[in-house]
Amino acid sequence: MAEAAVVSRHLKPLWLLPGTVLGAVGWPPTRRERFFLTWHYWWQAHLIDCAVDAANRAPTIERRKRIRALVRTHRLRNITGWTNRYYDDMAWLAIALERAARVQDNDEARGGLGPLEQKLYGAWDPAVGGGIPWRVGADFYNTPANGPAGIALSRLGRYERAADTANWIEGTLRDPETGLIFDGIHLPSGTIERTIYSYCQGVVLGLETELAVHTGDPVHLDRVHRLLDAVEDNLTTDAVVRGGSGGDGGLFNGILIRNLALVALMLPGSEHEQLADRRIAARIVKESATAAWGNRLDVEGEPLFGHDWTRSAQLPGGTAGAGGLNPNGAVTSSRVPERDLSVQLAGWMLMEAAHTVTAAGL
């Protein structure tokens, strides 16, 4: 139902071209959104990822065709090819394309991985002690670029660089008081941006879990354990992820949940600590899904998820108050955050994660 709601409300052909499809970033969409003058590269990457989730859950020809169309249309709308100037954007797309290529055998997605891998690998900056910036030429090196880049590079077999990335985040951006991960650091000045975002915790959990699987180094198990404890203590209430917003922030809790599901399903080890970590991660996924579903609105028989899963969802009143880009390139929330595609993708992501966890008997 979460999938069907996004498909029916948000998916539209690009510029009326046959065989194309992207997600309109608002519902109901403004004219700019309907014609994809506004489209948000990294939101569409998560739309591809959710489409892969759906095809894995219930394989159909229609779902495979949707993935192909989304991948093809993303490249077409980006105009300049697969890449752009934002390393965080490119990392999210690399993750989505790698999954589409590996588990859905999508050749077009496979073709996009080369340019993205080259950009992400080449962005590592030893002159400032490592890390990659969030944007070409920027002095800000942040978790939302380095975390997903590390995950993508790990899945592409670049384990050494992925481990370097995890070590850099651990040594640079972990808060010694809470154990959570800071947003980022300006280099070479060393000024840290100390805001705590839920998706920063998610990508580090995902990266450390990948490395625990592929390297066998127990340091990654320990980091997952400590960060999972910090997430449970600081970002949840009764195992439900709390807070949330619209705009770019609409995706943050969904990204945390996606990676908690990876911890629940993939974290290796049979010691008491790993067994407990997998149970805790699964519980947060399931309890958050229960809360989000209980607080949804039913609109013409389909769910509309709230931006905060602990509170009742609100119905958008039309196109007034649509979000937009701020001077830093971030997407601001609509007046009613529930109209944003990001919020609804997070709800879909949450339901798919809960499916994978419960289907595994966790």
Main β sheet profile: 3 strands, antiparallel
Number of helices, counting only DSSP H or I runs of 4 residues or more: 13
CATH architecture: Alpha/alpha barrel
CATH topology: Glycosyltransferase
Strand content: 5-15%
SS content category: mainly alpha
The residue ranges in which pLDDT falls below 50 over 5 or more consecutive positions are none
Mean pLDDT value? 96
What's the structural domain tally?
1
Key descriptive features of the protein:
362 residues, mainly alpha, Glycosyltransferase, three-stranded antiparallel beta sheet, two-stranded antiparallel sheet, 13 helices, 9 strands, 6% strand
Write a structural description.
It is globular, with a radius of gyration of 19 Å. It has one domain: Glycosyltransferase. α3 (41-57) runs parallel beside α5 (87-104). The longest helix is centred in the last third of the chain and has 23 residues, at 272-294. The protein contains 13 helices and 9 strands. It has 362 residues and is mainly α. It starts with a helix and ends with a helix.
Q: Topology, pairings included?
A:
Layout lengths: L1 H9 E2 L9 E2 L7 H4 L6 H17 L3 H18 L8 H18 L2 H16 L17 E3 H13 L3 H15 L10 E3 L4 E3 L4 H18 L2 H18 E2 L2 E2 L10 H15 L5 H23 L2 E3 L2 E3 L36 H19 L3
Antiparallel strand pairs: 1-2, 3-4, 4-5, 6-7, 8-9
Helix pairs in contact: 1-13, 3-4, 3-5, 3-13, 5-6, 5-7, 7-8, 7-9, 8-9, 9-10, 9-11, 10-12, 11-12, 11-13, 12-13
